[in-house]
């Protein structure tokens, strides 16, 4: 859990020893070159590591850090560096392969112990300089310092060390400098600013894209478990890599196992692996009398084989692993020694097999990251890159689509094979493909970061089984969607629910939330794989519509009507439907298409065609191509067709590219008019989203985030630690995000007074109320607040009842208040009641922010009351939201017209509602320890939005939070 900062007097702190640090400070991070580095607070056991680290520094690096030669660190200095209180003095080390490669430290400067300003310094091993570790350490030190109440960093830097000053400046901080002879004194506040967050996100994007590039653009590949048996997985992998024409060296690894049998006896058949996405467990069998071990084959598929990765004389960038799960640890050790940069593990027997397998998977990821590698899998189908300069097919798929400009990500291996086959059939060329299996490390978020900057990818396709880190997904997808369409299909109804038993009840709600969340990020959501490729065909080969006006041309009125109905239901406006008749000629089709393509009143064209009997069918394709490419045709107008129910790009409708494959301008065909119209409607929805203004997420005025953060963290002191029994984190089995797998998630619900107080720091005012226990207190509170007032029960069973038996409203005087107090006390048995000032009458609404386990932090809006709750009439958005998101969220519920002056009622103050939504979103964004906020009811009227009740729940920062310093999930 988070640790509370000191108060102004330095009192109330829990004692903290050198081993007692917040576990969420542990993090795996990506360096600028895409390699993984492990960060954690320093502990006394690091003394020997610190000495080795210091002795490995060059003389110049030591001079720049310590302002002198300092060839060795005195034992007293070593003890001081490794024994810190993790509050006034914090040191974070970067670890790779068990050794320290960088150290960052801050130390409080205030003489009275009051945290305000701290001196910061860090040093990076010479061989790791230039990897961006300095800015990473600075981010994490600043995050720790802010939690401990510090607001400013200072540093002393030698004048001849401008790179250090650049680290502070380039991190987005507004620094001030003062020169004093040979040194420069630097100061800056550590509060996160928009500039700093922008720099942080840009660096995150670059490092994550680089880490995926290391995976998809390797210079060399080793296939571990390569087999001479064509039925085995290792053989199939090696065959696919060779057949694709990989441009770098390929190294088969086929070493004897512990029983003397070569690895090629350990896998299942290639068919089984292709179906399951992994090798099966080894089968022990009676062998009879002992016999001499078989000789390891000197080559596999004509390529020299090696017993282990260590024996390969040349560097290895990517290792594709096809050995049983029990042998993966040994293989991993070899890859660590060899310095492999990325792994693809197709082996099964990990998280998908149960608790024991899940523990093995977590241990695998921890070991992979501690040695600087990235992992696809386990239980993966593999990866592919169609770039001719790479030509990598490290998958078990027997068929890979040709080169194109579409990137594809999915998890399931079996589904991946079907997807690749469908893509090839539909002429959807791929730039890159990743099937991540259990997605233990590399996820769809990583691929989005890569595709965002990949010039070879124009369209992104995702098959989502879950969002991984949903908040990060929303942030990245919103940015990528601005330049590249993202089409996503999610698996099954309620598939986002993490607990299977809860899926039936949660399925409908989960599906609605997923749809709203994807729409908010500009992602085009579809329900099936055919619809996924329907959209891909359009986005890959045709422009986006500039408006909704659609013309339908065809030789069947029935098919034209089907297309028109689907188009209208998808938000298109059918400008006209032209029925040319069953006997229409080639010239008539060409003229109608040419006229539509040239008409400025038409934004898109659908051509439906039923082939007449005994005619040359090629004329239809000729007519479409000719009509779409006349001199007067608008090249930025999309056109789709149904051509003989063919899916994809028929030869007659293809505009050949340089490689002979379909290029932009090819006309996609669909098997039915409904599917053609549906794809076009989704393209228009996406085009409309792209045309929305890019409204920034602005912070409202009149807020005090620091006071609110301090109060929340102090309030959390009473909560149990989220990682009991964990010591240094060096070898503790702590997950990469600092949380214990399967551990408790302690939370506490704030009372009404504390909830109102916390909201007040963000400019959200609850209608004034008093807690009272006696008639005398009730009468005094009413006089203090001013009549009229309400007296209300406080127990959950009596709040929000439709019969309003738990409240007495519009009480005009003290006598009425005393009477109401007596009645409600006797009726409910509540020891404490509320006396609250009456608010203006209005429409009851509810705003709720909650940390959803499937979708991350969400804000919802709907009308208040059990009826609307039962109907599920709410809208949802991922936070943070901007003003446009808030405005759209208000319109999301079906009952929203009640707010706009329904049946002569005065419309509510919409601006007040938007402001309330933004303030609650900002509060949840600033303080991730806030796990839920419920303001219900909010009475909306022309005068404003009056909050009658508020409840806030706080707890440790969720493991999927997308806040604070950069880290891998």
Mean pLDDT: 86
Uncertain regions spanning at least 5 consecutive residues: 1-13, 257-292, 493-505, 721-744
Count of alpha and pi helical runs: 26
- Beta-strand content estimate: 15-25%
**How would the global form be characterised?**
flat
Q: Which strand order spans the largest sheet, edge to edge or round the barrel?
A: 1-2-3-4-5-6-8-7
Report the end-to-end length measured between terminal Cα atoms: 17 Å
For the report, how would you describe the main beta sheet? 8 strands, mixed
Rg measurement, Å: 32 Å
Assembly state here? single chain
Q: How many beta-strand elements?
A: 37
Keywords: ATP-binding, Nucleotide-binding
Protein name: CoA-binding protein
Domain ATP-grasp: 756-794
InterPro entries: Acyl_CoA_acyltransferase, ATP-grasp, ATP_grasp_subdomain_1, CoA-bd, GNAT_dom, NAD(P)-bd_dom_sf, Succ_CoA_lig_flav_dom, Succinyl-CoA_synth-like
């Amino acid at each position: 859990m988070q640790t509370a900062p000191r108060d102004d007097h330095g009192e109330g702190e829990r004692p903290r020893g050198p081993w007692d640090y917040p576990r969420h400070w542990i993090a795996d991070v990506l360096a600028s070159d895409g390699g993984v580095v492990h960060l954690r607070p320093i502990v006394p056991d690091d003394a020997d590591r610190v000495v080795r680290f210091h002795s490995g520094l060059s003389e110049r690096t030591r001079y720049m850090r310590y302002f002198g030669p300092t060839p060795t660190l005195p034992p007293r200095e070593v003890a001081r560096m490794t024994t810190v209180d993790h509050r006034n003095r914090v040191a974070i080390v970067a670890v790779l392969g068990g050794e320290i490669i960088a150290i960052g430290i801050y130390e409080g400067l205030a003489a009275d112990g009051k945290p305000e300003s701290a001196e910061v310094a860090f040093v990076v091993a010479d061989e790791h300089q230039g990897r961006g570790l300095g800015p990473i350490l600075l981010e994490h030190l600043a995050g720790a310092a802010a939690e401990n109440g510090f607001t400013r960093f200072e540093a002393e830097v030698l004048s001849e060390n401008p790179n250090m000053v650049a680290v502070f400046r380039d991190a987005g901080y507004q620094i001030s400098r003062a020169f004093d002879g040979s040194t420069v004194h630097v100061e800056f506040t550590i509060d996160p600013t928009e500039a700093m967050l922008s720099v942080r996100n840009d660096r995150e994007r670059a490092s994550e894209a680089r880490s995926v590039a290391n995976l998809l653009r390797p210079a060399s590949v080793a296939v571990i478990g390569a087999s001479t048996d064509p039925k085995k997985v290792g053989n199939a992998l090696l065959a696919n890599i060779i057949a694709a024409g990989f441009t770098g060296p390929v190294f088969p690894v086929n070493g004897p196992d512990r029983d003397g049998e070569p690895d090629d006896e350990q896998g299942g058949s290639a068919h089984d692996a292709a179906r399951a996405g992994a090798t099966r467990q080894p089968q022990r069998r009676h062998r009879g009398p002992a016999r001499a071990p078989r000789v390891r084959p000197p080559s596999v598929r004509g390529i020299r084989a090696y017993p282990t990765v260590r024996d390969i004389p040349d560097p290895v960038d990517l290792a594709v692993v096809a050995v049983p799960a029990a042998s993966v640890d040994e293989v991993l050790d070899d890859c660590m020694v060899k310095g492999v940069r990325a792994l693809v593990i197709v082996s099964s027997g990990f998280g998908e097999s149960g608790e024991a397998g899940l523990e093995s998977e977590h241990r695998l990821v921890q070991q992979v990251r501690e040695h600087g590698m990235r992992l696809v899998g386990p239980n993966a189908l593999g990866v592919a890159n169609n770039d001719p300069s790479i030509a990598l097919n490290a998958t078990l798929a027997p068929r890979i689509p040709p080169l194109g400009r579409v990137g594809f990500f999915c998890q399931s291996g079996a589904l991946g094979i079907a997807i690749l086959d469908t893509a090839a059939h539909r002429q959807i060329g791929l730039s890159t493909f990743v099937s991540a299996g259990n997605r233990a490390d590399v996820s769809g978020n990583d691929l989005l970061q890569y595709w965002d900057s990949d010039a070879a990818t124009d369209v992104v396709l995702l098959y989502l089984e879950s969002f991984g880190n949903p908040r990060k997904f929303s942030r990245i997808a919103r940015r990528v969607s601005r330049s590249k369409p993202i089409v996503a299909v999610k698996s099954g109804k309620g598939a986002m629910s993490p607990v299977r038993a809860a899926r039936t009840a949660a399925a409908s709600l989960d599906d609605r939330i997923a749809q709203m969340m994807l729409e908010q990020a500009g992602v085009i959501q579809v329900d099936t794989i055919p619809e996924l490729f329907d959209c891909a065909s359009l986005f890959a080969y045709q422009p986006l519509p500039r408006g909704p006006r659609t013309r339908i041309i065809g030789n069947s009125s029935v098919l034209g009507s089907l297309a028109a109905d689907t188009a209208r239901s998808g938000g298109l406006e059918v400008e006209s439907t032209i029925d040319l008749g069953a006997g229409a000629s080639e010239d008539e089709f060409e003229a109608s298409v040419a006229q539509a393509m040239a008409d400025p009143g038409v934004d898109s064209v659908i051509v439906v065609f039923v082939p007449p009997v005994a005619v040359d069918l090629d004329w239809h394709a000729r007519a479409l191509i000719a009509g779409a490419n006349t001199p007067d045709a608008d090249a930025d107008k999309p056109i789709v067709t149904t051509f003989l129910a063919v899916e994809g790009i028929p030869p007659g409708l293809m505009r050949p590219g340089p490689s002979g494959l379909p290029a932009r301008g090819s006309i996609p065909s669909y098997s039915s008019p409904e599917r053609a119209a549906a794809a076009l409607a989704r393209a228009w929805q996406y085009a409309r989203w792209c045309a929305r203004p890019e409204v920034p997420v602005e912070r409202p005025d009149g807020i005090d985030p620091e006071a609110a953060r301090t109060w929340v963290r102090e309030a959390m002191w009473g909560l149990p630690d989220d990682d009991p029994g964990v010591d240094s984190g060096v070898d503790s089995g702590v997950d990469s995000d600092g949380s214990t797998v399967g551990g408790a998630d302690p939370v506490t619900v704030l009372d009404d007074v504390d909830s109102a107080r916390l909201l007040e720091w963000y400019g959200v005012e609850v209608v004034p109320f008093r807690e009272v226990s006696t008639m005398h207190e009730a009468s005094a509170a009413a006089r203090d607040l001013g009549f009229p007032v309400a007296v209300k029960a406080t127990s959950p069973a009596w709040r929000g009842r439709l019969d309003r038996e738990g409240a007495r409203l519009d009480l005009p005087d003290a006598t009425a208040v005393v009477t109401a107090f007596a009645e409600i006390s006797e009726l409910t048995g509540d020891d404490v009641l509320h006396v609250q000032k009456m608010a203006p009458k209005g429409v009851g609404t509810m705003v709720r922010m909650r940390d959803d386990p499937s979708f991350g932090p969400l804000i919802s809006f709907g009308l208040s009351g059990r009826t609307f709750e039962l109907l599920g009439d709410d809208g949802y958005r991922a936070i943070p939201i901007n003003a446009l998101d808030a405005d759209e969220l208000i319109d999301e519920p079906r009952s929203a017209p009640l707010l706009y002056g329904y049946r002569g009622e005065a419309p509510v103050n919409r601006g007040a509602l938007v402001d309330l939504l933004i303030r609650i979103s900002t509060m949840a964004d600033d303080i991730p320890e806030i796990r839920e906020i419920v303001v219900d009811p909010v009475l909306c009227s022309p005068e404003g939005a009056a909050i009658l009740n508020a409840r806030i729940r706080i707890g440790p920062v969720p493991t999927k939070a997308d806040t604070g310093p950069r880290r891998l999930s």
